[in-house]
Amino acid sequence: MIRALFRTLAQAFDPALLRVMARSFILTLLSFIVLGVAVSWGLDRLHPTGKAWLDPLITVAGALGVVALAWYFFLVVVAAIAGMLLEPVARAVERRWYPTLPPPRDAGVMEEAAIALRFTVLLVIVNVAVLPLWLLPPVGAVAYPLANGFLLGRQYFDQVAVRRMPPDQARLLRLRYRGRIFCAGLIIAFISLLPVVNLFAPVLATAFMLHLFGGFLPTGGTRSPLPVASRANS
């Protein structure tokens, strides 16, 4: 895992990744701006009280409240954007570190979309469930990273793994290395909450998981994987 982290940082200024990071930055920033503007516009059109002095205050408070909630659900935003940037990040990482790997399998748009949608919904549900726990700060501070670390590790791994193997084999490999994948998820959750750095989190987290997955393959990812089913059951 340490090697995966160092390799990710070593490639952080690769021009190919910098271009993807720029897209990640723009997409992440736009998601907040659009959300805030949309809520402000909606509240402004509703005129909640009909009082000229109060309605603008409600509009501003509503927009700020939504931005605060958006920050809380930032991990969901990061996860959604990561799915959109998977291929360019994977190509840049594999071109530099795993040049002998064969071309990835054609997972299909529906398969990839199903994985992304399933875990985005799970992230929303789990974070909504954890939100009341922040009324007890010590409990919320522990539950939030643990729950998101588990889900983020699982999501990023599945998105990366299905490029190289069918979903059932990816699941067996995930179960085999679930401890390391969970720790990787905690690291991704931490990166996703660091100011400024979190704007580039989808790219960094995807690259990190690609390296972790590469380490699970025979000879450190330098050739195609063995049938996972037979290895997992041995």
From TrEMBL:
It is found in: Membrane. Coiled coil: none annotated. It comes from the Bacteria. Pfam families: EI24 (PF07264). This is Uncharacterized protein involved in cysteine biosynthesis. Keywords: Membrane, Transmembrane, Transmembrane helix. It is a multi-pass membrane protein. InterPro entries: CysZ/EI24. The chain crosses the membrane at residues 20-43, 63-86, 115-135, 141-157, 177-194. The lineage of its organism: Bacteria, Pseudomonadati, Pseudomonadota, Alphaproteobacteria, Rhodospirillales.
